[in-house]
Write a structure and sequence with these properties.
The protein contains three helices and seven strands, in the order E-H-E-E-H-E-H-E-E-E. By secondary structure, the chain is α/β, with parallel strands linked by helices.
């Protein structure tokens, strides 16, 4: 048997803030889940994403500490167009989420931007550039 990737887990310091951020990116997160210590959502295609509070993780791994010294994970969201990358970046930063890299036309043929989630982790927004289409 070969293992298959089934779920991506995120450890968060503020569940409600994290879920609100990812809802803005189109994830179907259950209503009222912000008060829960563990939340899961199924993505199109069947892959799951889960959020756990730091307290939940410490409940089964008392030695866990928050990572320091830079981002260790990054999620990347495919947008429909370069204009959507720009619009989504603007929406998220206007809502108070820090922008890390403003939208630009990357040499690898994508419109690309990075915004930080409530825990300071990078979230890439990208789409094939108009020239690459």
């Amino acid at each position: 048997m070969t293992p298959r990737l089934d779920m991506i887990g995120l450890v968060v310091s503020d569940m409600a803030a994290s879920l609100a951020f990812y809802r803005r990116l189109g994830l179907d997160v259950p209503a009222g889940a912000g008060a829960q210590p563990h939340v899961e959502a199924t993505l199109p295609g069947g892959l799951r994403i889960a959020w756990d509070t730091e307290d939940v993780v410490r409940s089964f791994d008392p030695s866990w500490t928050a990572p320091t010294g830079g981002v260790r994970r990054e999620l990347a969201f495919l947008c429909e167009s370069p204009a959507e990358v720009d619009a989504l970046y603007a929406e998220l930063t206007e809502a108070g989420h820090p922008g890390h890299l403003k939208p630009w036309d990357a040499f690898w043929g994508q419109r690309y931007a990075v915004v930080l989630d409530p825990d300071g982790c990078g979230v890439s927004l990208f789409a094939p550039s108009d020239a690459a289409r």
